[in-house]
Amino acid sequence: MTYGAMTGTKTHSLKGENMDRFLRINMTNRTAKFEPVPAQYKDRAGRWLTSSIVHDEVPATCHPLGPNNKLVFSPGIVTGTSSPTSSRISVGGKSPLTGGIKEANAGTGWSRRLVRLGIRALIIEGKADGLWLLKIDKNGAQFEAADSHAGARLSEVYPPLFTRFGGLKTVDVCSIGVAGENRMSAAGICFNDQDGRPTRYAGRGGLGAVMGSKGLKFIVVDDAGAEGVAIAKQDVFDAGRKKMAAALTEHAITKPRGALNSYGTAVLVNIINEAGALPTHNFRSGRFDGAAKIAGEAIFEGNKERTGKELYNHACSPGCIIQCSNTWHRPDGSEHSSCVEYESAWALGANCGIDNLDQVAEMNLLCNEYGLDTIEIGGAIAVAMEGGVAAFGDGARAIELVHEIGKATPLGKILGAGALVTGKAFGVARVPHVKGQNMPAYEPRAIKGIGMTYAISTMGADHTAGYTIAPEMLGVSGKLDPLDPNKTELARAFQYATAFIDTTGHCLFIAFAILDIASGFEGMVEECNGVLGTNWTADDVGRIGKEVLDLELDFNRKAGFTKADDRLPEFMTYEPLPPHNVVWDVPDAELDKVFG
Amino acid sequence: MERGAAIRRPLTFLMIDIHLYGKLRHFADDSATTAQSIALVSWQPGDTVGEIVTRLGIDQTDLGSNVFLNGRYANLQTPVQDGDRLGLFPDDMQLLYKWYFAPQDSAGAPSNNGSGAPEQDSGDPNSAKDGEK
Ligand code: SF4
């Protein structure tokens, strides 16, 4: 497929502008406007900025798919610099899945290019008829019709786009798939990895549906001739960057050939299974007999057998030291699917009772092709299995179900609307969600701290919202003290720290190293000071994290959320979870204390 | 490392099931990565995780902090009972963060140092500070 010349498009020049701006796109009349960064947002970027703009500009009660919602992209504070593992893009808007605020992020060179063009935030407003491609480069923004790509698999669409716009050295591409075009609540926003694969997702909460509702199919960013990121205090930045790099290179989890590089996040399958907390058969059990068959070790050994060599993981985005992104290969040694994350292997595997890695990888691939959040889709299929649509463990049927979503059939649209809608359609009470978002791969009955994070997160059930501690998985110490104030304190502190990391542009996986190695943590703060010229200390991490969370909480309150929404589903309070045979029993008052 | 006292389960002996992962799998009869690699080790009253690990022939420095006794986060000092299931992950597989499951009451719950980061904790399963109560 090729494009004609960009006809009938307007070009809005960036030349001569101050290189730290917002780019505001109005899809209704397809105009673009550069604006100076408002004073109150001076030091904000990443999640702090996307959540600020959504909070300040989007009416909390608007329909997520209507013209008043906005979609906001922002690279982090240190994105685009030489700081390691920092090429994340934060994406925000009102979520069609939860009805609350949503921040999802992904690692991709797209984020680097955007910030190097001096664009601190890209704000998409309004609503167009048809589907459009937006091209951003140093000369400005251009639009062209993209209707001819409707319904196509993303792996068929990306290569011709790269060819046309100058290749991977010149551009990165953001897009939605067929799920976003059909405004499905499980639709994510896709970015390419370093090899051009359409595999890196700002996955959760249906932001792909928001992009689809605006009629925006692609955003191509070309940073040729860009000035790059200005650094206010080079020596401070350099010192911080070195500390960060040292911490990442040293720590057992993040170092080269460390846990993440060797086995990927899927190493967690066996670990969480051993802990009795791997949700299996739609959260009926915490142990899966087939866990070892879909785990990181099986991926590593299977690849070795099929390709004849030991494959270590690759970086999803430029400048990542950790390099956790894996690939799975077919029996003939050809590449099948990337990246088979822990969450995906669990959602499409254990949660559906499927222990065949080839089938799990195929579903993972299809989710990437159709533009879907693997967690929500695995959750929806498991709930559909519960409702009799397929048998648990029937991988062939599960693959067909993902194809139904790709064809946007009525059944596919039900599944694509997420687990909660699927549960309603098929009369299922066991729907493991909070605020309409399916839980990820940690059983909250077995890991109470994660359950607290799910319950109170502004995002709905979300494992990345806070590296919450469970001071005692039930019975770890033979005593459960849910009223221990330290736990509430920690649940809060970790949500704040996470919100700050999402603001820096670093991948959340740096947390393993920097929360363990004090100089790495200092380095993170110093890098930010170097770029911004601020004098933040460790105390500002908590302050800024709190500010981010407060904005998100305020948006959700205005959208109509109450404490009653900060709860886990009822079935978890009366169905004991094997093998520990525990129910969810953290008192509501304890949950309500976290954010006061 | 060589295979230690892993022996087949005779009915008359008291045994512990040890589920092994990563480079520790070869202490089990079936060391395939897609299998349950289980070793059986004899049990004596008063045994701790550390004693069982040594009896199997595992060098304690090859262990990470992900040690689970009956699915519960444990350490080398945790007492073991007949019929328990022990899960052992090597040092290059300790992805699950220790903060998810604080070790048994290491001087109370981990506390906050005000920076949003937890206090430094050695996380060392060999550390003796996590005494059993
Ligand atoms: S740690 Fe993994 S997910 Fe994070 S930026 Fe690196 S490769 Fe991407």
Shape, per Cα inertia axes of chain A: globular
Report the uncertain regions of chain B. Answer: 1-5, 97-133
Ends distance of chain B:
33 Å
* Helicity range of chain B: under 10%
Spell out which ligands are present. Answer: iron/sulfur cluster
Total number of strands of chain A: 16
CATH architecture of chain B: Roll
Structural class of chain B: mainly beta
What is the total number of structural domains of chain B?
Answer: 1
User: What is the typical, i.e. mean, pLDDT of chain A?
Assistant: 91
Task: Give a summary of the structure in a few sentences.
The complex is a heterodimer of chains A (596) and B (133). Chain A has 596 residues and is α+β, with helices and mostly antiparallel strands. Chain A is built from 22 helices and 16 strands.
List keywords for this structure.
heterodimer, A: 596 residues, alpha+beta, Aldehyde Ferredoxin Oxidoreductase,  A, domain 1, Aldehyde Ferredoxin Oxidoreductase Protein, subunit A, domain 2, 6-stranded mixed beta sheet, 22 helices, 13% strand, globular, disordered N terminus, B: 133 residues, mainly beta, Ubiquitin-like (UB roll), 5-stranded mixed beta sheet, 5 strands, 20% strand, binds iron/sulfur cluster
